[in-house]
Write a structure and sequence with these properties.
This is GH18 domain-containing protein. Belongs to the glycosyl hydrolase 18 family. This protein is of the alpha/beta class and 491 residues long. The chain is built from ten helices and 26 strands. The strands form six sheets. It has an eight-stranded parallel beta barrel, surrounded by five helices. A six-stranded antiparallel beta sheet has the order 12-11-17-16-15-21. It has a four-stranded antiparallel beta sheet with strand order 19-20-26-25, covered by helices on one side.
């Protein structure tokens, strides 16, 4: 068994074996260049790394930046907050030439030299490559090579790592990636082994969201912790983490990505009549999201700050009277529905409670921390604080602990219930949590379900018991003020 001491600090603490993996949790926030004004008011002290997004490479490899963006001012703001500043390359709409660039020596060399120049000019701490779909098209305008993108990317990263280390010997620079829910594709399937990539970069940030949306045939959660019992799409937060770890990526070099936004869709029927299932028929209509969703076709996006600021959510878990809030106990996510006349609007999103449960799961799998798209979308630090308020640690997927210093919520969240389905109340009252329907006291209930036999444990979150478990193959062991997780007798 692993013997682990109790820690009381808040956050997410994990171990890893990457070249420069920190023993402390990392919190990565994306800084959209087109939202520079909004970013000026963001408390960047909440983050350890801030990725300035995005710069895009031309076919020649030349790096193109938004001419109106004040890079020097942004880097100063980030450094003044004590965070590392990285430049993010690509993104959904800026990756159209990356497949060509990494396959062409001349273009690849030009992109690398431009990156080094920008790092020197602006005292950047590294580069984040946001090529989300090697081996697949991704955005409609993207070039791709199904057979060669992934091996070409590996070769390019090898050259980048060697040259950036040689050039910046005295002040080592970070190389990170933003990646999709499945490992990089080769010939139409996810690669089975990506361990060589992990040896060349510091972290990969998993984009664990956009799993359902207006593009699909049904409604569904933007970021389910687990697939719903009625899901036709089996993508999930937990499955994506497993996919990357199973493909050889060390968990200590992964961060769990969170969307600080949700998505609205138009249902064809009153979803409140079948609230146990979030996956229901929807129209093909692209409906308008929040006040920033001004360009047609609409995205249906609702940033957390606008869900709160526009009054749909009057607190983190209470709604305006026009809406009902539901808690899906199978996907561990909240959702909203408006069934007023001529309005069948569904909104999937994450709140402080669902984020907290995802953080607990990510830490139990040994991840290095959390990533956010994007930092400007928060409301009074509610979501980033939910990520940081809890500390748990697991070693190599085998052991860990949970401290007996439960969260201190400002408002309660009712029970979720033990059977698949949803919990709901009318607008103006609180929604749902998860676990048993009995009330409990934060910081008191921390019990192993079957001590020394199974990995499951029960904790008190938001005044209600929540069922959690550490990695497969471990057991829960009670001891003093903490719960330990080890390999059991004879291991």
């Amino acid at each position: 068994m692993l013997s682990l001491s109790t820690l009381a600090a808040a956050g997410l603490l994990l171990l890893g074996l990457a070249p420069q993996v920190s023993a402390d949790p990392i919190f990565v926030g994306y800084y959209p260049t087109w939202k520079a004004k909004e970013m000026k008011t963001v408390d960047l002290k909440k983050y350890t790394h801030v990725n300035i997004a995005f710069a895009a490479p031309l076919e020649s490899g030349a790096i193109v930046l938004d001419k109106s963006f004040d890079m020097a001012s942004a880097v100063k703001q980030i450094h003044d907050a004590g965070a590392k500043a990285l430049l993010s390359i690509g993104g959904w709409s800026g990756s159209q030439n990356i497949s060509y660039v990494v396959s062409n020596p001349s273009s690849g060399s030009r992109m690398m030299n431009d990156l080094f120049g920008l790092i020197e000019k602006h005292s950047l701490d590294g580069v984040d490559i946001d090529w989300e779909h090697p081996g697949r098209q991704g955005a409609p305008q993207n070039r791709y090579d199904a057979a060669h993108d992934t091996p070409n990317f590996l070769e390019y990263l090898g050259t980048l790592r060697a040259q950036i280390d040689a050039k910046f010997k005295k002040n080592r620079k970070l190389v990170t990636l933003a990646v999709a829910t499945q490992p990089f594709y080769v010939d139409g399937s996810p690669a089975k082994d990506v361990s060589k990539f992990a040896k060349l970069v510091d972290y990969a940030h998993l984009m664990l969201y956009d799993m359902n949306g207006p593009w699909g045939s049904t409604t569904g959660p933007n970021a389910p912790l687990d697939p719903g019992h009625c899901a036709n799409n089996k993508e999930s937060f937990s499955a994506a983490i497993d996919a990357w770890i199973c493909a050889g990526w060390p968990p200590g070099q992964l961060t769990a990505g969170f969307a600080f936004y949700g998505r609205a869709m138009a249902a064809t029927l009153d979803m409140s009549q079948k609230s146990s299932c979030q996956y229901q028929d929807k129209t093909k209509e692209a409906i308008k999201g929040d006040v920033d969703d001004t360009v047609t076709p609409y995205s249906g996006m609702w940033q957390w700050k606008h869900l709160r600021g526009q009054g749909i959510l009057t607190t983190t878990n209470t709604t305006d009277r026009a809406w009902k809030r539901y808690w899906d106990t199978t996907t561990t996510t909240p959702w909203l529905f408006n069934n007023s006349p001529n309005n069948l609007t569904y909104i999937s999103y994450d709140d402080t409670f669902s984020i907290l449960l995802k953080v607990l799961h990510a830490s139990s799998r040994g991840l290095a921390g959390a990533m956010v798209w994007s930092a400007d979308m928060d409301y009074r630090n509610e979501l980033i604080d939910a990520q940081r308020q809890r500390q748990q640690r697991c070693h190599g997927g085998g052991g860990g602990y949970v401290t007996n210093d439960g969260p201190k919520p400002s408002s309660s969240a009712p029970a979720g219930g033990s059977s698949p389905g949803a919990v709901t109340t009318d607008g103006g009252e609180s929604g749902g949590g998860g676990g048993s329907s009995s009330a409990c006291t934060n910081g008191v209930l921390y019990t192993c379900d079957k001590p020394g036999v199974e990995p499951g444990y029960t904790v008190c979150l938001y005044g209600r018991p929540a069922n959690m478990q550490c990695s497969a193959g471990t057991v829960c062991i009670a001891g003093g003020s903490s719960l330990s997780y080890g390999y059991g007798k004879g291991s």
